[in-house]
Amino acid sequence: MAQKNKDLLKDLVEISKYFGQRFDLTQAAGGNSSVKSNKKMFIKSSGYSLSEVTLKNGYTIVDNDKLVNFLHSARGNKITDSIEKKSFKILKDSTLDGGSPSIETLAHSIMKKFTIHIHPVAVNMVSVNRKSREIFNKIFSTKRKGESIYYVSYRTPGISLATEIINVVSVEQDKLKRDNTIIVFLENHGLICSSDNKLELIQSVEKIVKQFENYLKINLSRYKLTTEISQILWRNSYENLICCYSEDAILTKFINLKNSKNFIKPLNPDQLLYCGESPLIVGSSLETSIKSYLKKYKTYPRVLIVKKDVYLVAPNVLKAKEIEDVFKSHLYFNSNGALNRVLPKDEIKKLDSYNPQKNRLRFWFDYVE
Length: 369
Prior knowledge:
The chain is an alpha+beta fold. The chain has 16 helices and twelve strands. It has helices at residues 3-20, 64-74, 81-94, 105-109, 121-127, 132-139, 159-169, 173-178, 198-216, 221-235, 249-254, 269-275, 286-297, 317-333, 345-352, 355-361; strands spanning 32-37, 40-44, 59-63, 95-98, 114-118, 147-152, 181-186, 190-195, 242-245, 280-281, 303-306, 309-314. 38% of the residues are buried.
């Protein structure tokens, strides 16, 4: 892989995992991410969640010029079944490498270098409201310098949505080129944000989403903490991991930090391999607690407990769910007050180095490139 492409893919992985780990920003396999370079665009493949994108999987390379040319030829025309079928064909014909490109690839093709399409909870609480345009105008009565913010009425995802975006934003082509960030509010759908600067993209999304949260007077900070946790891990050589907040009420029901000695040691092999040797009970400093864990165990924590909130660390959201399942079973084992038999230290050491057992779980080394 050429170094330039590898750098682009690293950027794609970073923005995909940043947004894909947060329930408040996207759910299930929703949302799309892309990065452009010259005539090529690297975009999340259809069927993958954002958190599953890696340097080796989950993305498609397309010829961006083919897509843009087709969009401009379709613009101004009624989107018939015939044009929609042609759009599917052009998506297929434009594919240079990888799986099937997302149906939203056409919309991404006309954006800036870095683009993210997500479904933030707070944004969509407004987008589905019958008075969404009125609320949108109230929230953005004052716009920030360097940002172009647009409201797009609902259109079917694909060619219909992409041409509608062109119709709405093309009237300000000079402004689009001048401004650092494009933000598109999609009625009954979500949010598209695009920028030529990766950091500005992330900061703009966080600011925009916060504006909606403030308007709605809702607090989603428990989900935002996942970003702090993952970024600490990324700064300590675990770049390809994500962190999820657990919504499972059973976990908080059984966790009693005063009796944490009952659940900090593994009771069976799967608990060790999925959840690690011990959960991390976070102290007053999140970063200090994580660094101390990394130093002590020579690996990252799979389960973090912040007060009574539980956070799960894994290569992607699906694997985090597996960790959650195993950890919950462990709490059940410790729920009846019985004296349990923990795995002895020599067995933990043996299992920790037993590659066939780790390979059975497959995901153990997924984050290693």
